[in-house]
Amino acid sequence: MRRTDPQDHGPVRYGPSALPDDGLPVLPELSAVLAAAAGRTRHRPVGGPIGGDTALLDAACGYWRRRGLPTGPEHVAAAPGAPALLLALTAALGGDVLVPRPCAAWWVPYARLLGRPAFSVPTPAECGGVPDPYALLETVRRVRAEGGDPRLLVLSVADDPTATVAPPEVLHETVEAAAGEGLHLVSDETWRDTVHSPHETVLVSPAEMLPRRVTVVTDLAGAFLPAGWPAAIARFPAGATGDALHARVLDVLTALDARIAEPVAAAAACALDEGEAVTARLAAGVRLHASLARAAHAVVTASGALARPPRAGRHLYADLGPLRGVLAARGVGDAQELEDFLGARLGVPVPGGHRFGDDLGALRVRLSTAELLGGTDEERAECLRSHAPLELPHVRRALISLRSVFDDLRDDAERWEPPR
């Protein structure tokens, strides 16, 4: 059992942003909706109602119904970003929190903020985002034996930071284990709409397996909105338990005055309605980032480093443990030093695995594909329009820069190998 403790290298405020940005221009149709709503609210307070207005809640219901999760507006709440929803859920549920290791960088700080113990559980070999079911049972048993009160498990089927998608059979075992221990599950499904090969990847929500004990949270910055337009939605279980939790979460959001600005709420409702322009942009963005992720994965693994093939999102989780000797010679012995080393050489943020609850001594980092799109709005827009984005000069330069850093490490490692 491993309790998540603050790391020696930098407090939370120096960690990565909550979600990897897509780096792409804002969809004009959404900008128009936001601008029109801003004009209407110019002479009155711009904060919408706590929990979301009718249009946004109805759009959220439609979004989930299209994904096989029947939902009524009385079971939905909206807030300015998923962190606000997770804070409210953690406060409402009480008890200790369980998370997979590694996990999204923004999950654990809210438990700490509320003074709640948070315990990390190793993930299975197949994927990140969900804890290994046997390790989960052992962790719950030990926490209770030590006087703890585990109540909440946070997981993600399409995961940040590992960019993997949990196979349904693995997820089912974990959900059954959690249900047997009476845990409530929060399923962070921010990245479910960014699966790289949706026709080849089976993604199942825990809410389909355990409808009465799962709350689904989706941050719209994952697939639909710019990160600077904070909006997220939560779907609560039907029944008395879900109704009570929904009411307590709204109480917390009210105390925080956590309301979505009306222009952003209007854009969020438009995005969740999934009109033709929205779905076309989403598909194009997913294809672009999938191709970049595959290229980055090829570069990383060619150097001798390890990484699971990316299946969703805009990122890649790399393990440079096989290059530890070469890195040690360059003064790199832990994840913070690796973050500094790669960040300086690549000229972009490369958060270390310790930011995601991983062991500080493990040489792991998250690489963002948005950093390969170019440095100007014009270059990034060109990536979106191109049928061969990897052939664009600015993308090729970015990949060459990435390859040169990793090839340099590989070449050093090969020179150090003893003769056979």
Description:
The chain has 420 residues and is α/β, with parallel strands linked by helices. 43% of the residues lie in helices and 12% in strands. It has helices spanning 28-40, 54-65, 82-93, 108-113, 133-145, 168-180, 206-209, 240-256, 262-273, 276-302, 324-329, 335-346, 377-385, 393-416, and strands at 2-3, 76-79, 96-101, 118-122, 150-155, 184-188, 214-219, 232-235, 306-307, 315-319, 364-368. An eight-stranded mixed beta sheet has the order 1-4-3-5-6-7-8-2, with helices on both faces. The longest helix is centred in the C-terminal third of the chain and has 27 residues, at 276-302. It starts with a strand and ends with a helix.
Helix content: 40-55%
Strand content: 5-15%
What composes the largest sheet? Answer: 8 strands, mixed
Spans of 5+ residues with little confidence (pLDDT < 50)? 1-9
The CA-CA distance between the termini, in Å, is: 42 Å
Radius of gyration: 21 Å
* Strand adjacency order, main sheet: 1-4-3-5-6-7-8-2
Q: What does the average pLDDT come to?
A: 93
How large is the count of helical segments?
A: 14
Task: Give the total of beta strands.
Answer: 11
**H/E series:** EHHEHEHEHEHEHEEHHHEEHHEHH
Class per helix and strand makeup: alpha/beta
Shape: globular
